[in-house]
Amino acid sequence: MPHSLVHEDPHGAGPGAAPPSPPPIAPLPGPAVLGVVGFLVLGAVGSAPGPALPTLRARHDLDASGAALLLTAFSLGATLGVLLAGAARRRVPDRASLVAGAALVITGCALLPEAPGAAGALGALLLIGAGFGVVDLLLNLVLAGAGPGGSLLMAASAAFGIGAVGVPLLVGWQPQRVELPFRACAGGALLLAVLAARLRLPAARRPPARTATRTAPAGGRAAVVLLGAVLLGYVTLEGGVAGWETTHLRATTGASPAGAAGAVALFWCGLTLGRLLAAPLVARLHPRRLLLLALGAGTLSLLAAAVPAAAVLAYALAGLSIAPVFPAVVAWHTARRPEGGGAVVLFAAALAGPVLTAPVTGALVDAHGAQAVPWVLAALAAGTTALVVATRASRVLR
User: Does 223 map to a domain?
Assistant: First the structure.
């Protein structure tokens, strides 16, 4: 649970006593502070590759399939980061892993603008993604059990959208200066590293091996697989909009680079507002019902994005609609597996989604043009909705 960082000396400071050591940073709840800053950074980092993609594509002379590999490298790095963080949790404190994840983001963001070729850009995005995955897993695990029904996680994760709004606007302001958004991400990651090193966090619950074995029957494993598939669909959907909306709008609506980047910021504004509005709902509605409402509305919004005149508004509504999905699934899993079993598999599967789908989307764009983007995204939303319906078959998730 969040707690104050203020330390009291019950005996007082006597004459000649050493002055009391200062609190780690501020008398604010550690998990809440770290969560807000961490999700701000995650939002900034996660939203940077999409708006910067046209500039990176032109700089390295890539077609749509080649540009898709840049998005794939980020997602592959995120998946590896989750697996590394999960493997290290029994031996390495969460504090140290968060600092290491932030350091990976800083390193990748410093290297990407100076990359001499596509291979260098791929490597830098792989590093950025790895840091993203480490921070994403640990922040969600720390916050998921820190409030009733995951309400603290839902509220803090709204900061993800705030961070994600700023970076597209920064790209739109100076479309050719790709170093600006990644310098901003590096600065945020540095702040996160300082906070992670100094704020006091609650001890994370790590299941002993024997307990994990007894509490993970076949039904529990099936629940992890189903929820992992839902998260995979959601992350693919969110990343697809963030990664391809700029390309779609510039090709089909004649939007300027600044206008297209600003439209992506509207998508993230919708995501932010949606998570704030959903925070009180996550403790009142069954997660399945909330997910079905969110993904159904998201599917309709993305279908509307195929109409050029409605595309900007439709993408913003899609962000508003699908906003509750990620924190609701994490809270659902935490409620069923409070010891954290299966969390690494859940997050790794989720972040692996774009590794599989980004190349397919790039190939479809090469074959059919950018107008294929909203149709691909709507199909992903519909498929994820079907996966939520399939959770009814799992007794653990009823």
Answer: yes
Q: How many domains does the chain have?
A: 1
Q: Which residue has the tokens 């994600």?
A: 164
**What's CA 102's distance to the chain center, in Å?**
14
Measured distance CA(190)–CA(176) in Å, rounded: 24
pTM: 0.71
Q: Which residues contact 42 (CB under 8 A, 6 or more apart)?
A: 132, 135, 136, 139, 160, 163
Look up residue 370 and give its two tokens: 């950018």
- Is 211 among the domain residues? no
Write out the residue range of the structural domain in which residue 151 sits.
30-201+216-397
Dihedral angle sign, alpha carbons of residues 273, 277, 283, 286: negative
Count of other CB atoms within 10 angstroms of residue 172:
20
CA distance 2 to 296: 34
- Contact predicate 131/188, CB 8 Å: no
Quick check: 111 and 178 in contact, CB under 8 A? no
The answer as to whether 207 is a domain residue is no
- The CATH number of residue 285's host domain is 1.20.1250.20
Q: Which residues contact 215 (CB under 8 A, 6 or more apart)?
A: 207, 337, 339, 341
Q: Is residue 52 part of a domain?
A: yes
With tokens 């490298």, the residue in question is 73
Per-residue pLDDT of the chain (398 residues; tens, 9 = 90+): 333 333 333 344 444 444 444 444 433 466 778 888 999 999 899 888 877 888 888 888 888 888 888 888 998 999 899 899 888 888 888 889 999 999 999 999 999 988 888 899 999 999 999 999 999 888 877 776 555 555 566 667 778 878 888 888 888 787 778 888 899 999 999 999 998 888 766 555 554 444 444 444 445 567 777 888 888 889 889 888 888 888 899 888 888 878 887 888 889 888 888 877 877 777 677 888 899 999 999 999 999 999 999 999 999 999 999 988 987 887 787 777 665 567 777 778 777 777 777 788 888 888 888 899 999 999 999 999 998 888 776 665 66
